[in-house]
Specification:
The structure is a single chain. 35% of the residues lie in helices and 14% in strands. It contains 14 helices and 11 strands. The chain has helices at residues 38-47, 57-63, 71-77, 98-101, 110-118, 128-131, 165-175, 187-191, 196-204, 225-234, 239-246, 248-261, 312-323, 341-355; strands at residues 2-5, 8-13, 19-21, 87-90, 147-152, 155-161, 183-184, 209-213, 220-224, 272-276, 281-285. α12 crosses α14.
Length: 360
């Protein structure tokens, strides 16, 4: 078996578990070293696949008759292909090329998208050859909410259940903080993958289906902070200090944005960096994404992006002292869609708290 970056072999993995590194500089950051143990490869590969805790993960796996407990087996079944980067595996007897298998340009198995968004069980019968050619990003799309990829006008869009992406987008735009833009999915789009019953259920819960364009490409990959942290710790570096050095202004803006949104879900897979696939070098932060757990009711949400165990307020207050960001644009906004008055007043109150922070 080979681990490749597009058509470039990076590592050979023998049946006995021996891993031979061919190009260490372009290996996934979590594996970037001269010698890789098979257990390390399995851990990286397993972390690449969807968690059983994701909405409708069981339905996706059941439809494809894949293991719910062996994430490495899921990784092998889909060649490890993802829309986050251009890494994949080629196993014994597989003669496909990157052009033939990559998810960026090849047709996707849309029935799996329907399962991932609706939870509807679909009978999938396939011969052995077809099962070796599962073409879906759903097995390597991380996160907990129901979501699925749709191609439209030659571009890929992630549709998900998560109304709070819309007000978060509006607020971050007003603050000038780089982020992924979300839009409410059209009825035509929703009708293509959701049943009437599922649509009514979503409406009844007060949720909405939203979408965002893919922000990675064949040439530009996402490296999550989780993977960056593994790389740094292996090489004796402090990941938080290295993240700050990458782009201190962006790092500080993230603290401010997360506090104003009261976002309790900026875990290590929900922020990260862009990587140039040609060189394997990180080029800077990717825009902020995944805000469907923002506007939490909890008053003292803890930061997940700082080395010290502190609240979002303390992290944002320290950032605001340095940046002195103009937060006045929030006062000029009307209450964003999907936020009730209490939530909106909470946003304004948190902005006010930062403006009261003493300058040093």
């Amino acid at each position: 078996m080979q681990l490749l970056l597009k058509d470039i072999p990076l590592m050979e993995i023998e049946d006995n578990g021996t891993c031979t590194v061919l190009d260490a500089d372009r290996l996934p950051p979590a594996l970037r070293r001269d010698k890789v143990a098979f257990t390390e490869f399995i851990e990286w590969a397993s972390n690449r696949t969807l968690s059983i805790g994701r909405s409708f993960a069981k339905e996706i796996l059941n439809t494809l008759r894949l293991s719910q407990t062996n994430r490495y087996a899921v990784f092998r079944a889909c060649r490890g292909l993802s829309l986050e980067d251009s890494y994949w595996i080629r196993q014994e007897g597989d003669h496909k090329t990157w052009k033939e298998v990559n998810l960026f340009h090849n047709p996707l198995s849309l029935f799996i998208t329907e399962v991932s968004l609706s939870g509807r069980n679909i009978h999938y019968s396939a011969n052995a050859a077809e099962k070796r050619n599962i073409q879906t990003p759903e097995l390597t799309t991380l996160g907990a909410s129901a979501k699925g990829w749709i191609r439209r006008d030659g571009m890929l869009y992630l549709h998900k259940i998560g109304k709070y992406e819309i007000p978060a987008d509006q607020i971050l735009t007003a603050l000038g903080i780089p982020h992924v833009h979300y839009f409410i999915s059209s009825e035509t789009e929703i009708d293509s993958y959701l049943t009437k019953e599922r649509k009514e259920w979503i409406k009844g819960t007060g949720e909405a289906v939203v979408n965002a364009a893919l922000f990675t490409s064949e040439d530009t990959a996402l490296v999550t902070f989780e993977e960056f942290k593994i790389f740094c710790e292996y090489h004796g570096l402090n990941p938080y200090r290295e993240a700050e050095k990458m782009d201190r202004e962006f790092y500080l803006k993230m603290q401010i944005g997360d506090y104003i949104l009261n976002n309790n879900d900026r875990h290590e897979q929900n922020w990260g960096f862009f990587m140039d696939n040609k060189t394997g070098k990180l080029t800077g932060y990717c825009p902020l994404f995944d805000h469907d757990h923002a506007f939490s009711d909890y008053p003292d949400v803890m930061s997940q992006t700082t080395e010290d165990d502190i609240t979002l307020y303390r992290a944002a207050s320290a950032a605001q002292k340095e940046l002195a960001m103009d937060l006045g644009a929030l006062k000029q906004m009307e209450r964003p869609v999907f936020l009730n008055e209490r939530q909106w007043q909470g946003v304004l109150a948190r902005a006010g708290m930062l403006l009261k922070s003493p300058r040093t």
